[in-house]
Amino acid sequence: MEMVTVIEHPLIQHKLTLMRMKETSTAKFRMLASEVSMLLTYELTRDMPVTYESIETPLAVMTAPILKGKKLAFISILRAGNGILEGMLNLVPSARVGHIGLYRDPKTLQAIEYYFKVPDDMEHRDAIVVDPMLATGHSAAAAVTRFKSVNPKSIKFVCIIAAPEGIKYFHELHPDVPIFTAAIDEGLNEKGYIIPGLGDAGDRLFGTR
Ligand code: URA
Questions:
Q1: Which of 4, 66, 122, 151 is most buried per CB count within 10 Å?
Q2: Angle (deg, nearest 10), helices 82-91 and 26-44
Q3: 16, 103, 133, 208: which to mutate for ligand 1, most atoms within 8 A of CB?
Q4: Cα 145-179-162 angle, rounded to 5 deg
Q5: pLDDT confidence of residue 106
Q6: Ligand 1 centre from 57 Cα, in Å?
Q7: Is the CA virtual torsion 13, 7, 65, 67 positive or negative?
Q8: Is residue 187 within 6 Å of ligand 1 at its C-beta?
């Protein structure tokens, strides 16, 4: 499996461009985030295993494919991860959902956990960890480190925009976790924002600034 996959579907790219535009309203941004995340999920679940069951249509008996096993858990990194959960759940309504909340201690710069709740059967579930922006990669890497303690069956990381610095840092700590993104941008500014990016994803999703 490729360790970094840029999903270049034209619909995703078009919607991402609309998300980047500064004049896009909160309502529109949220809708686009939901649509982009649904399309990303469609692509990154391509390798989900299926099994075959005998079913009856109104006209005949057939052997038909059906998803195999315990399926998926989406793990949202708070708070912006929540903004892309909805689109993913539209596509996979039976998925379980976990949340991981971390903040950075301003003195020690360590990631401190303030919330951690994930399904208790993670060893049977494939996990997709979600955060729209992979910027420095510090919070995503810390969240995945913590999440690995519950032994998920597998982990993929999905974001909407990644910075090269974030990909590098994330894969130094988690070379086993593939990253799926709609774009890899130029880099970070001095405040850790992705350039050109789309601004603060949390603020744009929730209208907090
Ligand atoms: N988080 C965001 O929301 N935006 C960035 O550009 C970087 C981190």
A1: 122
A2: 50
A3: 133
A4: 100
A5: 78
A6: 48
A7: negative
A8: no
Task: Determine the atom of ligand 1 nearest the C-alpha atom of 200.
Answer: 3
Output the domain CATH number for residue 20. 3.40.50.2020
For residue range 106-154, list pLDDT tens digits in order.
Answer: 777 678 899 999 999 999 999 999 999 999 999 999 999 999 999 999 9
Catalytic positions are 104, 108, 200, 203
pLDDT tens, 58-80? 999 999 999 987 689 999 999 99
Does the CB atom of residue 202 touch ligand 1 within 6 A? Answer: yes
Range of the domain at 24: 4-206
Q: Rounded to an integer, what distance in angstroms lies between the CA atom of residue 116 and that of residue 143?
A: 9
The whole-angstrom separation of Cα 185 and Cα 164 is: 7
Residues forming beta bridges with residue 75, ordered by sequence position: 98, 129
